[in-house]
Each structure stands twice: as C-alpha cells, then as structure tokens.
Design a protein that fits this description.
alpha+beta; Arc Repressor Mutant, subunit A; 3 domains; 3-stranded antiparallel β-sheet; 16 strands
C-alpha cells in the first residue's frame, strides 16, 4: 500500500494515528481528537471540526437562508454608478467581469442555471490512485464518515475525480457518440471538434514541416486580410488561394470559433508595404512530412487539409477515438476549451457539490471494495461508512464495569466528545492512571465497532438489539446500504 507522502497528495504530513496512539495522554490539553483528513491536508474546510459540520448540504442551505434573512432586515442602500460611467458601459464592465470568471468554471446565475440545457449526462467517480490513498487514511483513523461527506470530499478537488460523460438520452439514441482526442485525452462532442483540436495543438506529433520555394502571386492587389488576434496576413480576397488560407488558419489556430465569426473579424489592410510583405511570404509554402512514414503513404503533403486527410486515413487510431461514452481524468476539466460540453460538466459538478446524491450512490461499490462497511442509522437515517464493521449489542452481552459505564453514558447522552466521556466515567478527582484506563476501554469499543466516532469527534454507541424485530431492522439497514448502487 502506498504511503501518504509517496502518493503525493499528503505532502509533509505525519502518519495517521490509531486511537491508542492519538489519545495516550488523558489530560485535557491532549484530549483525544479525530483524525479528520484536513489534518492530512486533503479535505475542504468543513472537515476541520464541528463548526462547519456538513452532512447533506441541508444545514449549509439553512445557514445561508438565515444570513439572507438577516440582511433583509437591514436598510437597502441605493446603488451608485461610478462617475463618468454610463448605463451601457457599466453593464459592459459587469459582463466583462462575468466573462473572465466563466473561464474559471461554470458561473451562470441561478436563473440561467434553471434554463440551462446540458448536452451530456455526467457521472463523477473517485480517481483510482487518489481514492486508494484516501481510503487507507480513513481506515487507519477508525473514524465513521457520513457517505455524503465522503462524496463531498471527492467532489471538492477536480483532480480527485474520474468523469464519465454520455450523450443526453443515450438510451433513446444508441447511435449517439462522443469523441476523444488521443494525444491528450480531452473529450469532444463530435469527431470534427476532436480532429480540429489535434490539428491545432498536436500537429508536431505527427508531422515535420519544411518550407519550399514557389512562384509568388502575380497581378495587382489592392488589399489583404489580416487576422487581428494572431497578427498574420492571410492574403488578398481576389487571390485564388484566399479561401483555402482562411480555412487552414481557422482550423489551426481558432478551431472552436465558428468560421463565419472568424471571417467577419478579419481586418482589410490597404497599406502597400503590407501587401508587398504578403506577396513575398507567398513565395514560400509550408509542406508536411509524415513522421514514422510507412510504405505506401505519401512523402509530403502540400496543405493543412491534406495533412488532416492523412491523419484520418493513416493515423486515425492515434488521433481520435469515437465511443458511446467517454471517461477522462477530472484534472483535464481545466484544459477543456470553452463551450457547451465544458459548461454541461461544470453545471453537473456544481449541482453535485450542493447535493451529492448520485456521486454518493456511485461510490458505494468502491467503498466496499476498499474494505469499508456501510450502514444506516435507523431505517430512514443517514448512511455511514467505516473501516470497522459496526457491532450492535445483545442484551446478554457482558462488558467490564468501565466499558459498561461508557456505553451507559453514551446511551443517555449521545454525541459527546471523548474527553467528556472519560471525565464522566472516571469521576471527579480521578488521577491520570484511572483516566488512561477509561480511555483505553473507549478505544477498544471504537476499534471493535461498538461505538462510532464521527469526523468531528462525536461518539455514538451502537444500539442494543432488545428484540428479534429490532435485530431484523438493523440488519436490513446494513444490507440496504451495502447493496444499493
């Protein structure tokens, strides 16, 4: 099993401690604390303690609602427009700001999200390598986690994800497919988009380029087109290669921009020096020499269109893959070009971060594979996962006096912290030796599964199976949690 430091996601972090080693000192200063994964530098802020205890996202929504009501009681301040700003320019500034933030992720307003129509269905699963290390740390901690909390922990960082996408309503349209750029693994809605991406980003992986001398254009040219973004001169509109040059430049540098929009944004330059510069550049032509050329393949290709045709004819498997569904690492989400596909994935990710039901159900099988045990607290309660199988008590079971007092204490008041239980059971004025014995008994009950210790340090005793009906109910709770996908 990989160590946390070797795995690269817990740098400079100490080894996870067992309850015994973490709680060997019974003093209040060193009272037992849960290994809460933020201790290892992995989780979001809500993992750090009970102040931000997140289970299903409902509490956070209530807190937001409370803050919203609080602000509603305050007097509304009139909006001021900065001096020198007109209404239209002010809106342009705000739109410009939203445009920049959209590059960071899906940033539509709530109203826009309600009307947003995804182009793919999306599923989020844990990255194999990251989840193996995460699971190892969770099992060593002996802490019981809410299933939603684990899902939110995985969703918190994109590099912890493996993303599965399918065309919308794929079951009704079995012929629908998606495409994958083979050189970098990025997904696309169509094969053409994937090929354009490979042509613009990875052409050097397939071809060497050479320049050859050709005859310069003849005739009188009154203007030439210039691309304002790249600064390149694309030729005179009256030249017979003009449309071909536009297509090649668009495919190589701006494949995600509609061609008509690209064409409309060109500048027409009438300066004679610029026209002469273009005529001189046309005396050379870039040709493409295939790498790893095999017998029967062309030696050189005279245009970018010819290079595209070569890839589809002779290097298709190394260029693009078309499948009914595509899985790719979450870390590639930041590299995806803007468009409906990226927005759809971001939209699904934000929805799951608010309420991770689908992701939680999707990781059940993986948790069981990693050796976790899942169960519900009550028939309609929260689902929990722990590396220790829980043990419900039988009325005929006997425990030591100290252990029984611990269980009685938690039966009376559940959710207590370890230091409070130790202080209550050992009694006032107890010496360190007595507290250490109670703490050792508490650790034993946690290790054996009779007591669940949550990530915020709260303790819960597993129920007493006082009747056959109750035993059956608890068994069904565990079976349901184990089998549902």
């Amino acid at each position: 099993m990989p160590t946390l430091a070797k795995a690269g996601i817990f740098p400079n972090s100490p080894t996870a401690m067992s309850p015994d080693s973490a709680e060997s000192n019974p003093s209040e200063k060193d009272s037992p604390k849960p290994l809460d994964l933020s201790f290892l530098g992995l989780g979001p802020s809500w993992v750090s303690g009970p102040a931000e205890n997140v289970s299903s996202g409902r509490r956070e929504n209530r807190d937001r609602g409370h803050r919203r009501n609080h602000h509603q009681d305050e007097p509304r301040r009139p909006l001021r427009r900065p001096e020198g700003k007109t209404g239209s320019s002010d809106r342009q500034d705000r739109n410009h700001g939203r445009g920049n933030s959209r590059e960071e992720g899906f940033s539509h307003s709530p109203r826009q999200e309600e009307n947003f129509a995804p182009v793919v269905s999306v599923g989020f699963f844990p990255d194999d390598a990251k989840f193996e290390v995460l699971g190892e740390a969770m099992k060593k901690s002996l802490i019981t986690y809410e299933l939603f909390s684990i899902a939110l922990l995985i969703l918190d960082k994109e590099d912890r994800l493996s993303i599965l996408i399918k065309p919308i309503q794929a079951d009704k349209n079995p012929e629908a497919t998606l495409s994958l750029s083979v050189p970098d693994g990025l997904p696309f809605l169509t094969e053409a988009e994937a090929i354009n991406h490979v042509m613009s980003r990875h052409l050097d992986k397939f071809f060497d380029t050479v320049e050859v001398e050709v005859e310069a254009p003849k005739g009188v040219f009154s203007m030439v087109a210039k691309c304002p973004k790249s600064g390149m001169i694309l030729g005179a509109p009256t030249h017979h290669h003009y449309q071909k040059n536009l297509r090649e430049h668009h495919a190589r540098y701006f494949p995600n921009v509609p061609f008509e929009r690209f064409k409309a944004g060109l500048e027409m330059v009438r300066d004679q020096e610029t026209i002469d510069q273009w005529i001189k550049s046309m005396s050379k032509r870039t040709e493409y020499v295939p790498k790893d050329r095999k017998e029967g393949e062309p030696e050189r290709l005279e245009s970018i269109d010819a290079a595209r045709g070569f890839l589809l004819a002779f290097r298709r498997d190394a260029t693009v893959i078309t499948r009914p569904q595509v899985r790719f690492p979450g870390r590639l989400l930041a590299e995806m070009p803007p468009g409906p596909l990226r927005d759809s994935i971001r939209y699904a990710l934000e929805r799951q971060r608010r309420f991770p039901l689908d992701t939680a159900n999707g990781i059940r099988g993986r948790l069981r594979k990693e050796g976790f045990h899942l169960y519900k607290k009550g028939s309609k309660g929260i689902t929990y996962a722990c590396g220790v199988r829980r043990k419900c008590r039988d009325p005929k079971s006997t425990f030591s006096d100290s252990m029984q007092k611990i269980l009685d204490c938690l039966d009376k008041t559940s959710g207590q912290q370890s230091k409070d239980v130790v202080a209550h059971v050992s009694g006032e004025g107890a010496d360190d030796a007595a507290k250490s014995k109670v703490l050792a008994d508490l650790n034993f009950l946690i290790t054996e599964g009779y007591i669940a210790k949550l990530h915020d340090g709260r303790l819960f005793a597993q129920p007493v199976l006082s009747s056959q009906a109750k035993a059956k109910e608890e068994a069904e709770n565990e079976d349901t949690a184990e089998e549902t996908n």
